Amino acid sequence: MENNKKDDANKQCIDDGVEAADLVITERFLQELLRSTGTNSFTQQQLGQAADISLAELSSLEGDPDRLARKRKIDREYRVRCKEKENQMRCNLGTLEQENRQLQQENEFLKTNNGLVNQLLQTQSKELDQRRNEIEKLKLENRKQIVLVHTLSDLLVSLYCN
User: Coiled-coil ranges per the record (predicted)?
Assistant: First the structure.
């Protein structure tokens, strides 16, 4: 039923000499009207208002062919700009999706690499602690040997001197 009403309004506009591209205005108005009312169908009054607005707009332009041509040109250029903007956004979206995938892969690589580096640092830290312990043991052994050498030297000197 909704489509029949829409088709009737469209046929009447076409019968009045309106190009199909100009029906986009009426279609958009009807879609916006549906969205604003939150319903899935139009009342007869709403369809009448939509038809009155589009017909009134077009009838005001009918008297001046230059003005009608300018309006059609402006509308056409607007649609072209919208299509270009949509294409540009799709292109940008594709580029951003690809960049996002690359960044996710890089992030995973860096997480893995970070884990390996942390593991290496822990291993090196353990080795460093072992080396410090070995150095402390060697220093203690060295002190013992120095004390022993001094003690033995003193004993030798005391034996020779006596």
Answer: 86-141
CA-CA distances (angstroms) from residue 21 to 39, 45, 74, 109? 26, 24, 12, 52
- Do residues 14 and 20 touch, judged by C-beta distance below 8 A? yes
Is there a contact between 26 and 10 (Cβ–Cβ < 8 Å)? yes
Low-confidence ranges of the chain (pLDDT < 50): 1-3, 5-6, 9-24
CA 156 – CA 162 distance, rounded (Å): 10
Give dist(CA 98, CA 7) in Å, integer.
43
Q: Two tokens at 86?
A: 């949509």
Q: Say how far residue 93 (Cα) sits from the centre of its chain.
A: 8
Task: Check residue 65 and give its pLDDT.
Answer: 77
Q: How far apart are CA 138 and CA 132, in angstroms?
A: 10
Q: In the structure, how many helices (H) and strands (E) does the chain have?
A: 4, 0
- Using the structure block, give the residue that is written with the tokens 């884990």: 115
Q: Structure pTM?
A: 0.40
Separation of alpha carbons 17 and 162, rounded Å = 140
Task: Establish how many alpha carbons lie within 13 A of residue 62's alpha carbon, considering only the half-sphere containing its beta carbon.
Answer: 11
